[in-house]
Design goal:
The structure is a single chain. The chain has 125 residues and is mostly helical. It has helices spanning 6-13, 17-25, 44-58, 63-75, 80-124; strands at residues 3-4, 33-34, 40-43. It has one domain (3-124): Orthogonal Bundle (Multidrug-efflux Transporter Regulator, Chain: A, Domain 2). Strands 1-3-2 form a three-stranded antiparallel β-sheet. A hairpin with a 5-residue loop joins strand 2 and strand 3.
């Protein structure tokens, strides 16, 4: 099995090594292996799990909910229905947040347009 270091894992996802240590401390990276010197080793499975953690974090899922999800993953197939329900609920939250951001962006664009007109008018005078 191929492994990568904490530095390589951090670089792959454009996050800091301290973020990875924090995720591990919070229980989001269970079963993380270590070499004889105690350095973290990220297997392909760990990288895949980390990718999920980052996706959920990037979509504003709380650390405690991510932890619950990871716990269910570790428990196995008997938690698939729970995970499915969690993902459906999270998707609803993400869709609502996107709608709110889209609406807010329209307002920001209106302000930019108004200010641009004001700046252009002042320069002409």
């Amino acid at each position: 099995m191929k492994y990568c270091s904490i530095r390589e894992a951090a670089a792959k996802f454009h996050i800091t090594e301290s973020t990875l240590r924090y995720y591990e401390k919070k229980g989001l990276l269970p079963l993380l292996e270590r070499d004889k010197a105690g350095r973290r080793l990220f297997s392909e499975n760990q990288i895949s799990l980390l990718e999920t953690v980052i996706c959920l974090k990037n979509t504003n899922m709380s650390i405690s909910n991510i932890k619950q999800y990871i716990d269910w993953v570790v428990e196995g197939d008997n938690t698939i229905e729970l995970r499915l329900e969690m993902m459906k609920n999270h998707k609803k939250s993400v869709v609502n947040e996107i709608a709110l951001m889209t609406e807010s962006l329209k307002r920001i664009d209106m302000k930019i347009s108004r200010y641009t007109k004001n700046v252009t008018t002042e320069k002409v005078l």
